[in-house]
Amino acid sequence: MPERFVRPAAIDAGRAAALACAALALFAAPAARAAISCTAAASGVSFGIYTPLQASALQANGTISISCTGVLYDVATVSLSPGMSGNYATRTLTSGAAVLDYNLYTSAADSTVWGNGSGSSSTVQAVIWFFAPTTTLTVYGAVGSGQDPAPGTYTDTITVSVSY
Questions:
Q1: CA 154 to chain centroid
Q2: Which CATH number goes with the domain that contains 159?
Q3: What pLDDT, in 10s, does the model give residues 39-51?
Q4: β-sheet bridge partners, residue 122
Q5: Which residues are registered as beta bridge partners of 70?
Q6: Quick one: 10 and 49 in the same domain?
Q7: 0.70 cut: is pTM over it?
Q8: Per-residue pLDDT, 133
Q9: Whole-angstrom Cα distance, residue 102 to residue 93?
Q10: Which of 91, 135, 133 is closest to 116 using CA atoms?
Q11: Which residues pair with 19 in a beta bridge?
Protein backbone atom coordinates (compact mmCIF):
# COMPACT_ATOMS: atom_id res chain seq x y z
CA MET A 1 0.00 0.00 0.00
CA PRO A 2 2.66 2.61 0.78
CA GLU A 3 4.00 2.18 -2.75
CA ARG A 4 0.70 3.38 -4.17
CA PHE A 5 1.05 6.66 -2.34
CA VAL A 6 4.65 7.12 -3.41
CA ARG A 7 4.10 6.65 -7.16
CA PRO A 8 1.37 9.27 -7.54
CA ALA A 9 3.47 11.71 -5.53
CA ALA A 10 6.42 11.11 -7.89
CA ILE A 11 4.17 11.57 -10.92
CA ASP A 12 2.73 14.77 -9.44
CA ALA A 13 6.23 16.06 -8.76
CA GLY A 14 7.15 15.27 -12.38
CA ARG A 15 4.10 17.15 -13.61
CA ALA A 16 4.94 20.08 -11.39
CA ALA A 17 8.48 20.14 -12.77
CA ALA A 18 7.13 19.94 -16.34
CA LEU A 19 4.69 22.78 -15.66
CA ALA A 20 7.47 24.85 -14.12
CA CYS A 21 9.62 24.25 -17.22
CA ALA A 22 6.69 25.14 -19.47
CA ALA A 23 6.10 28.33 -17.48
CA LEU A 24 9.79 29.23 -17.77
CA ALA A 25 9.66 28.50 -21.51
CA LEU A 26 6.74 30.92 -21.90
CA PHE A 27 8.68 33.66 -20.14
CA ALA A 28 11.72 32.90 -22.31
CA ALA A 29 9.72 32.94 -25.57
CA PRO A 30 10.56 36.54 -26.59
CA ALA A 31 14.29 35.77 -26.49
CA ALA A 32 13.74 32.82 -28.87
CA ARG A 33 11.55 34.84 -31.25
CA ALA A 34 14.29 35.09 -33.89
CA ALA A 35 14.03 31.34 -34.50
CA ILE A 36 10.43 31.61 -35.72
CA SER A 37 9.97 30.93 -39.40
CA CYS A 38 6.66 31.19 -41.25
CA THR A 39 5.53 30.50 -44.80
CA ALA A 40 2.27 31.42 -46.49
CA ALA A 41 0.49 29.92 -49.48
CA ALA A 42 -2.66 31.22 -51.12
CA SER A 43 -5.24 29.76 -53.46
CA GLY A 44 -6.79 32.22 -55.88
CA VAL A 45 -10.36 33.42 -55.71
CA SER A 46 -11.85 32.08 -58.94
CA PHE A 47 -15.20 33.70 -59.68
CA GLY A 48 -16.09 31.58 -62.68
CA ILE A 49 -18.56 32.99 -65.22
CA TYR A 50 -20.10 36.37 -64.60
CA THR A 51 -23.53 36.95 -66.13
CA PRO A 52 -23.85 40.57 -67.34
CA LEU A 53 -26.35 42.66 -65.42
CA GLN A 54 -27.02 39.86 -62.92
CA ALA A 55 -29.12 40.96 -59.96
CA SER A 56 -26.85 39.70 -57.15
CA ALA A 57 -23.11 39.67 -56.54
CA LEU A 58 -21.06 36.74 -57.81
CA GLN A 59 -19.45 35.12 -54.76
CA ALA A 60 -16.28 33.01 -54.55
CA ASN A 61 -13.77 32.04 -51.87
CA GLY A 62 -10.04 31.43 -51.68
CA THR A 63 -7.71 30.47 -48.85
CA ILE A 64 -4.48 31.60 -47.23
CA SER A 65 -2.54 28.98 -45.27
CA ILE A 66 0.15 30.02 -42.81
CA SER A 67 2.62 27.51 -41.35
CA CYS A 68 5.19 28.39 -38.70
CA THR A 69 8.00 26.56 -36.96
CA GLY A 70 9.78 27.48 -33.75
CA VAL A 71 6.74 29.18 -32.26
CA LEU A 72 5.17 28.66 -28.85
CA TYR A 73 2.44 31.25 -29.40
CA ASP A 74 2.18 34.19 -31.77
CA VAL A 75 -0.40 36.25 -33.60
CA ALA A 76 0.21 36.78 -37.30
CA THR A 77 -1.33 39.80 -39.02
CA VAL A 78 -2.37 39.10 -42.60
CA SER A 79 -2.88 41.95 -45.03
CA LEU A 80 -3.80 42.04 -48.72
CA SER A 81 -2.66 44.57 -51.33
CA PRO A 82 -5.22 46.62 -53.26
CA GLY A 83 -4.25 44.90 -56.51
CA MET A 84 -3.98 46.66 -59.85
CA SER A 85 -6.66 49.25 -58.95
CA GLY A 86 -4.41 50.74 -56.28
CA ASN A 87 -7.25 51.27 -53.82
CA TYR A 88 -9.34 49.24 -51.42
CA ALA A 89 -12.67 50.95 -52.07
CA THR A 90 -13.08 49.04 -55.34
CA ARG A 91 -10.63 46.49 -56.63
CA THR A 92 -10.79 45.82 -60.37
CA LEU A 93 -10.38 42.74 -62.48
CA THR A 94 -9.07 43.64 -65.92
CA SER A 95 -9.19 42.12 -69.38
CA GLY A 96 -7.22 44.45 -71.60
CA ALA A 97 -8.87 47.86 -71.16
CA ALA A 98 -12.13 46.37 -69.81
CA VAL A 99 -12.71 46.31 -66.05
CA LEU A 100 -14.96 44.43 -63.66
CA ASP A 101 -15.34 45.76 -60.10
CA TYR A 102 -14.92 43.35 -57.20
CA ASN A 103 -13.57 43.20 -53.68
CA LEU A 104 -12.16 40.82 -51.08
CA TYR A 105 -13.66 40.59 -47.60
CA THR A 106 -12.85 39.27 -44.14
CA SER A 107 -16.16 37.39 -43.80
CA ALA A 108 -19.03 36.01 -45.87
CA ALA A 109 -21.12 39.06 -44.89
CA ASP A 110 -19.02 41.11 -47.38
CA SER A 111 -19.06 44.07 -45.00
CA THR A 112 -15.36 44.54 -44.13
CA VAL A 113 -12.84 44.90 -46.95
CA TRP A 114 -9.65 42.90 -46.38
CA GLY A 115 -6.69 45.20 -46.92
CA ASN A 116 -3.78 46.61 -44.94
CA GLY A 117 -5.78 48.56 -42.36
CA SER A 118 -5.69 51.85 -44.24
CA GLY A 119 -8.82 53.67 -45.30
CA SER A 120 -11.83 51.52 -44.58
CA SER A 121 -9.95 48.22 -44.95
CA SER A 122 -9.01 45.79 -42.18
CA THR A 123 -6.36 43.17 -41.63
CA VAL A 124 -7.01 39.68 -40.28
CA GLN A 125 -5.18 38.12 -37.36
CA ALA A 126 -4.36 34.44 -37.11
CA VAL A 127 -3.29 32.71 -33.92
CA ILE A 128 -0.33 30.40 -34.42
CA TRP A 129 0.91 28.21 -31.60
CA PHE A 130 2.93 25.10 -30.89
CA PHE A 131 -0.03 22.70 -30.95
CA ALA A 132 -1.53 24.26 -34.11
CA PRO A 133 1.41 25.59 -36.17
CA THR A 134 -0.68 25.83 -39.36
CA THR A 135 -3.84 27.84 -39.85
CA THR A 136 -6.00 28.45 -42.89
CA LEU A 137 -7.95 31.65 -43.44
CA THR A 138 -10.79 32.09 -45.91
CA VAL A 139 -10.80 35.02 -48.33
CA TYR A 140 -14.33 35.98 -49.37
CA GLY A 141 -14.68 37.59 -52.79
CA ALA A 142 -17.61 39.28 -54.51
CA VAL A 143 -18.01 40.75 -57.99
CA GLY A 144 -20.58 43.54 -57.81
CA SER A 145 -23.92 43.02 -59.53
CA GLY A 146 -25.31 45.09 -62.41
CA GLN A 147 -22.08 45.35 -64.44
CA ASP A 148 -21.98 44.81 -68.21
CA PRO A 149 -18.35 43.96 -69.01
CA ALA A 150 -16.96 42.97 -72.40
CA PRO A 151 -16.41 39.22 -72.84
CA GLY A 152 -12.95 38.10 -71.72
CA THR A 153 -10.80 36.60 -69.03
CA TYR A 154 -10.46 39.04 -66.14
CA THR A 155 -7.59 38.93 -63.66
CA ASP A 156 -5.98 40.87 -60.84
CA THR A 157 -2.87 40.26 -58.74
CA ILE A 158 -3.05 40.50 -54.96
CA THR A 159 -0.01 40.33 -52.69
CA VAL A 160 -0.46 38.61 -49.32
CA SER A 161 1.71 39.96 -46.48
CA VAL A 162 2.13 38.15 -43.16
CA SER A 163 3.78 39.88 -40.22
CA TYR A 164 4.50 38.19 -36.91
A1: 24
A2: 2.60.40.1090
A3: 999 999 999 999 9
A4: 114
A5: none
A6: no
A7: yes
A8: 92
A9: 7
A10: 91
A11: none
